[in-house]
Design a protein that fits this description.
The protein is built from 14 helices and 15 strands. The chain has helices at residues 2-34, 52-71, 91-103, 115-127, 157-170, 184-199, 218-224, 240-250, 268-271, 274-277, 292-305, 314-331, 336-342, 357-365; strands spanning 39-45, 80-86, 109-111, 131-134, 150-152, 175-181, 203-210, 231-235, 257-259, 281-285, 352-354, 370-374, 377-378, 391-397, 400-407. Helix 2 (52-71) packs parallel to helix 12 and helix 5 crosses helix 6. It is globular. The termini are far apart.
Length: 412
């Protein structure tokens, strides 16, 4: 009996030992396999609704960057795989899309959210240790909130409004009306413009907030034009803006209007006839186009999509994607936490200046620090994840937006 117990104990020990070895082997096998798996990034953007014009730009730019990253071997010699969600220009759908990307698709970084969506999702993403990088979320609410798991490669609306106010003043306007949709992005730039225009000595004769998606805005326009402004500054998206403009034109409220970047895109002329829009002013955060970084990007864009880069945040979305990948390479680890700790470092001084992912990984693998110079401009993030930016005053001419004046970041 004694010997039988010893045999049973030995057999149990041997079984546990074999099981442990098998588990360790499985874990090692899984670890080896996971190092070969693609790194998962998400694109959460507006492919429908008020901001639909920007979703395809963000997606195409991220795709362009991802192709470049993968052709260079990828961070840590792993490919990037993209998962796409449409926020439908809705906060609720944006939150659902963010959660799906994180929980189901298991992404470690998300590129593309607009202001409303990023402000609503950033805490959940941070808790999940997933980095969110936006190419166009200008909300002033983010001015002091980001910098750990949230970054943006576009300037804040505090700069956007200041640039718009300066443009209006430079064009000789002293008395303006402001109309804006009551969402986060439109409200943010409208309030910033109002404050800056007053500081420059101008008068805001009316400021009207409207709900998006209505079929008519006649009463709101009547209120805006009650005191006979010289021009209407309109902050609205691609669903509501055209309706306001059609009502404005039907009632003969004048010939002068300035629209924000949400409308200053090529698709605007599919929504509003070129004849009605002729002479409209527009503002757009935009890079200096004669730089090596932008010319390289513009050539790649044209080759990939058989069209010219219009400046509607394509370069910003491209840069955001490149920096995400460089941060992984710099960290030596593919995780949201690793990206968060290195995102600012690979794109800000000090370090050797690089203008592509391929240049960046070569320097990193030599043990050098890098300073990525973006197609959208220097991506020198402050401690809150913000960058400065240049702007262009645009004018609608014959169904196109034509650059009228360039405003370097240092002038603003």
């Amino acid at each position: 009996m004694k010997y039988l117990k010893s045999i049973i104990s030995f057999a149990m020990y041997l079984g546990l030992f074999v099981l442990s070895v098998n588990l360790m082997t499985a874990e090692l096998s899984f670890a080896e396999e996971s190092q070969e798996d693609p790194i998962r990034f998400g694109i959460l953007a507006s492919f429908s609704g008020e901001m639909a014009g920007f979703g395809k730009y963000a997606y195409n730019a991220a795709n362009l960057a991802t192709k470049e990253i993968n052709e260079a071997g990828g961070p840590l010699d792993r490919k990037i795989e993209l998962y796409r969600e449409d926020d439908e220009s809705s906060v609720e759908q944006g939150i659902r899309g963010c959660r799906k990307l994180i929980t189901q698709n298991e992404v470690i970084a998300i590129n593309g959210p607009v202001s409303d969506v990023i402000t609503a999702s950033m805490n959940y993403a941070k808790e999940s240790e997933v980095v969110i990088a936006s190419p166009y979320a200008g909300s002033t609410k983010l001015d002091k909130l980001g910098g750990k798991y949230q970054f943006r490669t576009c300037p804040s609306d505090s700069f956007d409004g200041k640039a718009s106010a300066q443009m209006l003043m430079d064009e000789g306007y002293q008395r303006i009306a402001i109309m804006h949709v009551n969402d986060e992005g439109s409200t943010s730039v409208a309030e910033s413009c109002e404050e800056a225009f007053k500081e420059l000595g101008g008068e805001v004769v009316s400021k009207v907030s409207v709900s998006g998606g209505k079929s008519r805005y006649l009463s709101e326009l009547k209120k805006a034009f009650k005191d006979d402004p010289e021009i209407l500054f309109l902050a609205a998206g691609q669903d509501t803006g055209p309706t306001i403009i059609k009502n404005w034109n039907q009632r003969g409220y004048g010939e002068n209007m300035m629209v924000t970047a949400d409308l200053a895109i090529t698709e605007f002329f599919d929504l509003v006839s070129p004849e009605v829009a002729e002479g409209f002013l527009g503002e757009m955060p935009i890079t200096q186009k004669d730089t090596e970084e932008y010319e390289r990007f513009a050539k790649k864009w044209e080759d990939a999509y058989d069209s010219k880069a219009s400046g509607a945040y394509q370069a910003n979305a491209y840069d955001a994607q490149i920096i995400l990948a460089l941060a992984i390479e710099a960290a030596g680890e593919a995780s949201g936490e690793a990206i968060a700790e290195n995102y600012r470092a690979v794109a800000s001084p000090p370090g050797k200046e690089v203008i592509s992912f391929e240049q960046g990984i070569k320097e990193l693998r030599k043990g050098n620090e890098i300073n990525y110079q973006g197609a959208s401009g220097p991506c020198d993030f402050d401690k809150y994840g913000n960058v400065m930016g240049s702007y262009a005053l645009l004018e609608a001419k014959d169904g196109e937006w034509v650059e009228r004046r360039f405003y370097p970041a240092e002038d603003l």
